[in-house]
Design a protein that fits this description.
Length: 291
């Protein structure tokens, strides 16, 4: 610990702290606007490093105002280094371009050590398509970032892109399980694959914890866009892991919470089409995590 960190009382063994590298979409409920309340509800100090400022997310609105950050991210991290700020975990989400992937790698070099939990949500597409502004070259570069993570949380579209497949091929259990194994081989300790739709009308989560594969978490597939689902799931998963839950139990808790949010959202239709109604489930999540 640096002398400055000691004199500023920045270390508290009773308080876990996570760095969130993600965008701030002001309206639309995704990324930081979802993660910050989820981590707060679970008693984890969350420190945002915005990758971009957007008026809304890019799913379903007319094209939003987007201000990607660049040098500013490095300046912020540089200041944190100078005061000796430390993190128990680092979670990266929506990144604006390959340069920002390199920025995340240099942040990991600067701020992570062997005790830091590194979670990469390789945000780049859903529903079989890349999000606005992403391309196959980004996907190839993201694959390299995934090799640095302890845990990755791709959805089925992202899992296909990371393993060089056409996302339309991801609808059967055998392919999903093969993809999960290929993603494990990239190096992360655990992989949670979300949004695994099957031809029987269900959707679910597959998880590999480094030793075993789990493929039993499924529910009915609501055939409508559910923006921010991946952010809700990955945030809850990180919270459970930081509360020392096993990977399997963390995935189950995060999946339950996400399903509860989906049900609240669907019950509220046609309102809330733009994001998940996650607020009412936070107390349940906090209880589940405390175990
Ligand atoms: O939830 C993924 C996501 C994150 N950030 C932004 C997005 C999306 C998905 O559309 O547009 C800005």
């Amino acid at each position: 610990m640096s002398d400055l960190a000691t004199s500023l009382h920045l270390e508290n063994p009773k308080q876990k702290r996570i760095l969130l590298i993600n965008d701030l979409s002001c309206f639309g409920k995704c990324s930081l606007t979802v993660s910050l309340p989820v981590f707060a509800a679970c008693g984890i100090e969350a420190v945002p490093l915005p990758t971009a400022l957007l008026s809304t997310h890019t799913g379903g609105f007319p094209l939003p105002y987007i201000l990607p950050l660049g040098q500013q991210m490095e300046e912020i991290v540089h200041h944190w280094q100078s005061i000796g700020l430390r993190f128990d975990a680092i979670y990266s989400g929506y990144l604006c371009g390959e340069e920002q992937i390199a920025t995340v790698e240099s942040i990991l070099d600067a701020l992570a050590d062997e005790r830091t939990l590194c979670i990469v949500d390789p945000v780049m597409g859903d529903g079989g398509k890349l999000y606005h502004g992403f391309d196959y070259s980004f996907a190839a570069r993201m694959r390299r970032l995934c090799t640095r993570a302890d845990v990755i949380t791709p959805n089925a579209t992202e899992a296909a892109l990371l393993t060089g497949r056409d996302p339309s091929q991801m609808h059967d259990a055998a392919t999903q399980q093969t993809v999960l194994s290929e993603l494990c081989a990239l190096g992360p300790r655990a992989v949670a694959l979300t949004g695994a739709i099957r031809d029987d009308g269900t959707v679910g989560y597959l998880c590999h914890d480094g030793e075993r594969m789990f493929d039993d978490i499924r529910h009915v597939h609501y055939d409508r866009p559910l923006h921010g689902c991946g952010d809700v799931f990955a945030s809850a998963l990180c919270c459970a892991l930081l509360h020392d839950q096993s990977t399997e139990s963390a995935v189950r808790i995060a999946a339950d919470f996400t399903l509860q949010c989906i049900r609240e959202t669907v019950n509220d239709a046609p309102a809330h089409w733009y994001g998940l109604r996650f607020e009412t489930g936070l107390a349940m999540l906090a209880r589940a995590i405390d175990g």
